[in-house]
Each structure stands twice: as structure tokens, then as C-alpha cells.
Amino acid sequence: MKNVKAYGAKSNDADLNMMEIERRDILANDVKIEIDYCGVCHSDIHQVRNDWGNSKYPVVPGHEIIGRVVEVGSDVKNFKQGDLVGVGCMVDSCQECKSCEDGLEQYCENGMTATYNGKDEHLGGHTFGGYSEMVVVREKFVLKVPENLDTKAVAPLLCAGITTWSPLRQWNVKKGDKVGVVGLGGLGHMGVKFAHALGAHVVMITTSPAKAEDAKSLGADEVLISKDEAEMKKHANSFDFILNTVPVGHDTNPYVALLKRDATMTLVGAIDEVDIHGGGLIMGRKRIAGSLIGGIKETQEMLDFCGEHNIVSDIEMIDMDSINTAFDRVVKSDVKYRFVIDMKSLKN
Ligand SMILES: [Zn+2]
Ligand SMILES: [Zn+2]
Predict the structure, then answer these.
(1) Are 156 and 338 in contact (CB under 8 A)?
(2) How many angstroms separate the alpha carbon of residue 108 from the centre of ligand 2?
(3) Is the CB of residue 64 less than 8 Å from the CB of residue 156?
(4) How far apart are CA 295 and CA 292, in angstroms?
(5) Which residues pair with 224 in a beta bridge?
(6) By C-alpha distance, which of 59, 114, 74, 76 is closest to 92?
(7) Nearest 5 degrees, angle CA 154-CA 156-CA 160?
(8) Is 303 helix (H, G, I), strand (E, B) or coil?
(9) In this structure, which ligand is nearest to the CA of 89?
């Protein structure tokens, strides 16, 4: 075991501060990673503040991790010292159930191990995330990061990226499809970039006219203001797919009305109650679905796609010691579109 520096919270009302955590000695199939950058996801804040009621303290958040391999176990085949790698929301799963067999470890029937606040099978207690100088991860859950991209802006792809990529692929978004993206935050801005790169006609659906210009610069072809009833009516029954990134419970009926017959709207943000009227679904055989991050295989596919198409997240860099201010700004949606922590600021 090794003590490493980290940044975490000791209780739900405490600020994050410097602390020491333990990392396991590397096992035969482990990769040891020195962390360069870590993205700041809204889930980090939910977990630190115990919004979902399942947090274990101290919480060391961070599941958008980018770093360099510094050591590999004796059985590791795919990585070597110096490789640029990423780690997302999961660090392990049973590898035996149907979901794991299908490469969908996020739905592991025995419960995947979350990167932080998951059950630590090796040291006991719970797992600690990427707001730290180093992490040890099972090879299977380590991703190769293309070297041609702006490395720090790759970090958010590991959660915000795959969360939007996976449903776009699952529902087969393709050239010429009319695709709506609801909500322009960390998730929504990646949804727009990916749908655009896949050749879709992208419509940003937002309550805020102020976001129109930004949405277009990210790749949206049109902006639809959801409060404008006349405009919403014009777009009724016309969408092939809608990616709904709204992070809280809300009325989904106005969006369902936008779907074509047999089309789907997928929720990726609202782990919450949503309102849905059966009639809106029945009348057009429409579907509402959900999707959680993505499997390891499709996360690698997404990173490779980003390498080929030169896609990264729009980010604002911060030092570790300004994380508490950054949390407050995320809650107010005052970031375009993701904070990324320079982990060297922790090592100093
Ligand atoms: Zn996340
Ligand atoms: Zn499993």
C-alpha cells in the first residue's frame, strides 16, 4: 500500500481539502497511473454533498481521469510505461454476468465498482477517485487516449462524452437524421458535437435564447426555444431522436410531442421523477428511454472517434485549491462547459 495525496471532503457540509489516501500495490493485471488532469462532473458535487443519500466519507471525487502509465503488473498486455490513458466512471465489475459479457459493464448485474464511493474489493472500505496524484486500476478498465488531442480537454470525454455518445450510437443516429439535444451543459455540449460529427441535423432545444450562439458554434444547425409554443408546434412530430440531458426531474411531454412516430427520447441526466402523459406516447407509438454512461468497449470507440474527428470538450482549467469555488459555479451552471483540474497543482 502507498499513501498518496488527494483532495476530498470529510462530511456533507465540509469543503474539500488536502488529505492522504491509500492506493493498493499493483496486482498482476493492474495499471498504475500518475494523474495529469481530472474533470469536474456534477456527480462529484452530488456525492460530496450526499444528495443521493449513499455517500461514504471521506469522499474523494473524480471520474474523468487522464494520466500516464508509470507501472504495469506482470500480466498486463495492452499498456506500458509512458502510455497516455484515461479512466472513467468504473474501475471494476464481475466480468461474468450477461451485461459484462456484452461489454456493458455499467449495467453489471452484480454491481460495477464505481471509481469513487464504490466498494473497494482490495483494501476494504470504499474507492477514491481522481482528485489525487495517482490511481491503480485493473487493466480492463483503462482506456487508450489518442495522443493527437488536447489532453486536458479529453478528460470530460470519460463521463460527459461517453454518457452522450452511447445513446447516440445505441439509437443509431446517422447522417441526415433530425436530432434534438435538450439542455446545454457539460453533457449537452458533447451531445451537440457528437450528433453533428455523426452527420445529423442538430437542433439545440433550450429554455434560454442566450445560449443560441454558443450552440451554433458547437455544431447545432438550429436552436429551438422550448418556451416558445408556436415554434415548438412547428417542430411537432419531426425528430428522429432526442437526447435529453436535463439533470433534474421535469415535464417531458413537450419534448415527446416533438418526436416522429416510433422515435425515441433518451434521458441521461434526470435521476429523478419525470412527468409523462401516456397519451403522448400512445398516439405516435413513441418511446422514452434511459441510458447510463457506456461500456468500456464503446468508451474506447468514442475516444478513437474523437481522435479521428478532433473532438474534445470545451473546458476551463483550474488549480486544485479552487475546487470549492468551482463546485459552486457548476451548481449555478456558470462554466463553459466543464472544469478540468490540473493535478500538478496538487503535487506542489
Ligand atoms: Zn460524471
Ligand atoms: Zn457483471
Answers:
(1) yes
(2) 4
(3) yes
(4) 9
(5) 205
(6) 114
(7) 135
(8) helix
(9) 1
Report the run of H or E that residue 196 belongs to, with start and end: helix 186-197
Q: pTM above the 0.90 mark?
A: yes
Cell readout for 303 is 475516444
Torsions phi, psi for 68 (to 5 deg): -115, 140
Residue with cell 465540509: 14
Residues 6+ apart with CB under 8 A from 92: 112, 113, 118, 121, 138, 140, 141
Look at strands 338-342 and 315-319 and give their pairing. parallel
Question: What sign does the CA torsion over 206, 51, 45, 132 have?
Answer: negative
Give the whole-angstrom CA distance, residue 229 versus residue 206.
Answer: 13
CB count in 10 Å sphere of residue 304: 14
Greatest C-alpha distance within the chain: 64
Helices 160-170 and 296-309 cross at an angle (nearest 10°) of 100
pLDDT tens by residue, 269-326: 988 899 999 999 999 999 999 999 999 999 999 999 999 999 999 999 999 999 999 9
Backbone φ and ψ for 64, nearest 5 degrees, come out as -130, 75
Give the distance, in angstroms, between the CA of residue 25 and the centroid of all CA atoms in the same chain.
28
pLDDT of 56 strictly over 70: yes
Question: Quick one: residue 138, left, alpha or beta (phi over 0 = left, psi -120 to 50 = alpha)?
Answer: beta
DSSP letters along 158-189, please? GTHHHHHHHHHHHTT--TT-EEEEE--SHHHH
Three cell numbers, residue 139: 487493466
Residue 154, pLDDT > 90, answer yes
Report CA(95)–ligand 2 centroid distance (Å).
5
pLDDT digits (tens, 9 = 90+) for 4-31: 999 999 999 999 999 999 999 999 999 9
Ligand nearest to the CA of 63: 1
Ligand 1 midpoint to CA 238 (Å):
31
Q: Cα separations (Å) of 301 from 20, 35, 37, 82, 296?
A: 35, 22, 21, 21, 9
43 Cα: distance to centroid of ligand 1 (angstroms): 5
